[in-house]
Amino acid sequence: MSAMDRAALIRALPYARRYARALTGNQARGDAVVADALRKVLATPDVDLTEDAAARTALYGAIGDEVRAAELQARPAGTGSDMSLPQRMLVLLTALEEQPLVAAAAACRIGPEVAELELRLARDSLRSAAATRVLIIEDEPIIALDIQELVERCGHSVVGIAATETEAVEIARAERPGLVLADINLGAGGDGANAVARILRHVTAPVIFVTAYPERLLTGEAVEPAFVITKPFDPTTLAVATYQAVTHGVRPV
Predict the structure, then answer these.
(1) Is the domain of 103 the same as that of 147?
(2) What CATH number is associated with residue 8?
(3) Per residue in 45-65, pLDDT tens?
């Protein structure tokens, strides 16, 4: 493999980590899947990795293969996602990872026509998903109101909007939200990651971090979030991230 190929893979890794964590619903499991997928891609002869898009598609596909094999073996019990694994993969790839349908279909090992149908079914499932109570941590008032509108359009309710670490902790302890949606940079109000760490000492809830630079957050060099979405985002991206966070990326038997 050439240095160019390896460089493309390295640039694809932050996005692979984000995808795997969202797909599995867990940071540690997602990162382990990425490690296995990377080894698989590196060991595959004649795979075209000369372009960044090709490297991302190769990693996304290998991640899907690893998760599919694990789910077939584990058959997790309990209530989880109403979407099938291919449907969850497609909606994450097209919404969260902003992949075109053809590339997403290739990563899912299915044809574009089948992918289009499965994606339609997945979006129907998102619209009928159970609602939860959301705490928004965002220091910019206009952005916070925009996020609130998106959250409510997804069928959820907002229990509070916090502009600082202190406000976030106080609201979380009083309202016990089912989901925390947190910006990383709160300006003079502190740090969103610190706010979340303090909240999780008292409240058990999934967290979605929002950042304009996900590649800076997903370096693999420190403890990182399981769910990351990129600013600006649309309702589908928020809906699928929320859906995966609340269901922990688990599908029913």
Answers:
(1) no
(2) 1.20.140.160
(3) 777 787 889 999 999 999 999
Judge contact between 105 and 137, C-beta under 8 A. Answer: no
Neighbouring CB atoms inside 10 A of 28's CB total 10
Q: Is the CB of residue 241 less than 8 Å from the CB of residue 222?
A: no
User: What's the order of all strands across the beta sheet hosting 179-183?
Assistant: 157-162, 133-137, 179-183, 207-211, 227-230
**Peptide bond preceding 206 in cis form (omega within 30 of 0):** no
pTM: 0.72
Range of the domain at 38: 3-127
Best CA proximity match to 60, nearest among 21, 27, 28, 25: 21
- Predicted confidence band at 212 (pLDDT cuts at 50, 70, 90)? confident
Q: Is 184 helix (H, G, I), strand (E, B) or coil?
A: coil
Cite the beta strand spans of the chain per DSSP E.
Answer: 133-137, 157-162, 179-183, 207-211, 227-230
How many C-beta atoms surround the C-beta of residue 125 within 10 A?
18
Q: At what angle do helices 165-175 and 192-199 cross, to 10 degrees?
A: 30
- Spatial neighbors of 73 by CB under 8 A, at least 6 apart, are none
Q: Beta 227-230 vs 179-183: how paired, if at all?
A: unpaired
Tens of pLDDT, residue by residue over 102-111, are 999 999 999 9
Cα within 13 Å of Cα(48), Cβ side: 4
**Average of pLDDT values for 104-122?**
95
